Structures are given as C-alpha cells and as structure tokens.
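Subject: DUF7988 domain-containing protein structure
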Amino acid sequence: MSHPVRDARRRIQTDHASIIAGIDTCADAVADPWDTSRTTDSHAVADGLRRLLEETGILEALPSVLADVVEAAGYDLQARPVAGPPYVVVTSRGPVLRATIDPGRLVIRFDAFEVVRDSDPDRPSAYRRLDGTQLEVSLE
C-alpha cells in the first residue's frame, strides 16, 4: 500500500469517523423500507442516499474531508473541491470522493451497498445493504 493511501485511510478513520457513521445511518434509512434484503432500483438507492446525505449536512462536509485527506497525504489540490462531480459523487454503492494529486488519482469510496449480479443476464442487478459502511482508498 502506498503512503498516500495509508495516510488518507488513517486520517479518515481517526478524524472523520463521524462522517462514516453518518453515511452508515443514512444508508440504514434508505434500506429500512425494503420488504426484502435487497432492491433492484439503483436510482432509489443512489437518489435516496444523496437526499439523506444532503439533509444531514454530510454531503456538504465531504469536500472538506477530501481536502483534509489530501493534505494529510502530503499533497495539494489544484482547486477547492465541491459537493459534486468530479470531486464528490453519490453512487448506488455510496459516496465516492476523487482528487488528482501528483502520483495519480486518489479515490475514496464509502461503500454502504453492494451490487449483487444475477447469473441470468436478463435479470437486473440488485443492491444489498452491507453490514456497516466500508472504507476503500486507492491511488489509480
């Protein structure tokens, strides 16, 4: 694991644990009304999660998390990140933060849902709530 990845992960886990907990709470609220453990409506997952992240102020906080993490990794951002593409995107798996730094693109994923693909290509993929929110950091 590269130092920027390790440093980014460490900073999020120590200084932004409340963001992870907030994403987790919002994801629970998205999945709560489902009558089964999964749904095939990716838009309901992503749109519902985005709406709840906005309502709780977490979406607006994510650019500051990204800036802090980049600084902790020892790099500078070329521009101030915003709560929208290309810096912050809410997907059907969870929020994704992205920044271009000197060694490459830093990608931070907060995975709250997983995609479950069916072996039958005619059946849609399903989305299942993970047990918690998993932090994934990579340098691409």
